[in-house]
Design a protein that fits this description.
41% helix
Amino acid sequence: MAYEYIVEGVIASLLGFVFLYNTFIRGFNKTKASSSSPSSMVFPVENCVKETGNGEIAGSTTDIIIVGAGVAGSALAYTLGKDGRRVHVIERDLNEPDRIVGELLQPGGYIKLIELGIEDCVDEIDAQRVFGYALYKDGKNTRLSYPLENFHSDVAGRSFHNGRFIQRMRQKAASLRNVSLEQGTVTTLLEENGTIKGVQYKTKGGQELIAYAPLTIVCDGCFSNLRRSLCDPKVDVPSCFVGLVLENCELPHANHGHVILADPSPILFYPISSTEIRCLVDIPGQKVPSVSNGEMAHYLKTVVAPQIPPELYASFISSIDKGNIRTMPNRSMPAAPHPTPGALLMGDAFNMRHPLTGGGMTVALSDIVVLRDLLRPLHDLYDASALCKYLESFYTLRKPVASTINTLAGALYKVFSASPDPARKEMRQACFDYLSLGGIFSDGPISLLSGLNPRPISLVLHFFSVAIYGVGRLLLPFPSPKRIWTGARLISGASGIIFPIIKAEGVRQMFFPVTVPAYYRAPPMD
């Protein structure tokens, strides 16, 4: 029996590495060809970038302008301000946000909060500690705990109201004398000879102002209207979330997120306060039933409700009847920056992944740690060209954490979604059974999901281990032509899920970052 598993593993590995090799070579050739093309060096002309003109000047003594004060912008403002930078933050709306995502911070993200000195921002907002996940499928369930044995007792996931968390971070940033938070809408990046010099924005009172700084960092979120001049945004919307809040009920597994492998796609439950549970129902595609005419309520009651744990059924129906049903599209966008002197992208404006795994804030906070460490040796930010070249290393150094979480999010969403394809059904069942084995079979994947083990190669190994496990289940005790064919299609399907995501992330930066020249960039001389 063990011999059969080994043979299957060798075959699967060979197929995977052949596919990976072909993907890498083709991607490298395309990159080489495009980089040699003159058109690829043209700075995009967009209506959000314009030549520096006349206008009232504000913040001329600013070191860094940050556009947006969400999770990324607020945390970045405090971090850079604590390092002595003079920071001007311009946020469209400083009122408390009300969102249905950005409510679950993985343990890896909490560790980044500690590194940045802002872990107290989860205090006094009724945040709940999260110790892992409970996975449900066809009436069965398994509990998957975060492997936290080697960490401080305070390290765990945190779930909360997104708006409360952001307001705490804004207050933290504004407590520094060298950080200025202002409500206003940035309409334009000011460009002069290919270098971003600052921004033009409209204040809350409607006044048009200009702010200058040697470095502008755009963190204006998933709906960014400024990123087109700084990256090549290829936004995909694979599904939408329907959000509900369940009140005064308890989850079957306390202090755990709950993932139901439903049809057609997953349903999530997690606590956001001591009395509230967030429910997110994933609906594939960009069109959802109408909320206003009652179609959504009917869909939730007839299609979704029968698939949720019985302990939550009554509260789920009650929440639907209250009518506070909200929807939002789930976006994914690989990072594809245009290194631009004087400007940098961060947060969801720069890189997005499916929110199924709750990894967005962890990626953003990890990026901030990387950027902070790169900027710390620099006293002068005014040599825009040298600074831009130096900060190209940011895009490589961020890859271990970002690419692991991004790839896992995209791959898990496809594996966890229902499909009529027998091979996909087998992969889904194999994933549930593999994680149910416990020990290294659950600790490994959960450490990847939680941001505690940002190693892309571990992700690939576990992903194909699930596929091989699925093939083994098919071929034992007696293989048949139909089962062999399904097993081959399972391996092929697994490759078709993960390799396109890896290609979009960048094979070289993801697996071989030390071969990228930018990895070794030294700080420019002051």
